Amino acid sequence: MNKLFSAQAKGQRVNAGAGTGAVSVALGMTGASVRVVNHGPDDAYFAIGDGQQVAKVPQADPEWGCVAVLANSDITLGIASSVNPLQFATRTEAGTAVLDVYVSTGI
Description:
Elements: E1 10-17, E2 23-26, E3 33-41, E4 44-49, E5 67-69, E6 73-78, E7 87-91, E8 96-104
């Protein structure tokens, strides 16, 4: 049986913007899952993992390794057990977005 994502998961707010300087922040949280909530107004792209992360948009880099989270939506992903989610980077293609990032266990 799958464990549900914790309602007490620690979270952090991250603001995303366009341009070459993607925001990369230390999360200070560990877990097996990450939930990203995009409050909008624009779509955002993010990368998560050990060390400094770089978020890219697909049109700028055809080999981008980022995940899209649409405006006014959320996404929950599993994190490999060998990865400690210390850094989170995000950006938009144009405009801005406000993201809440939660790390916990479960789905």
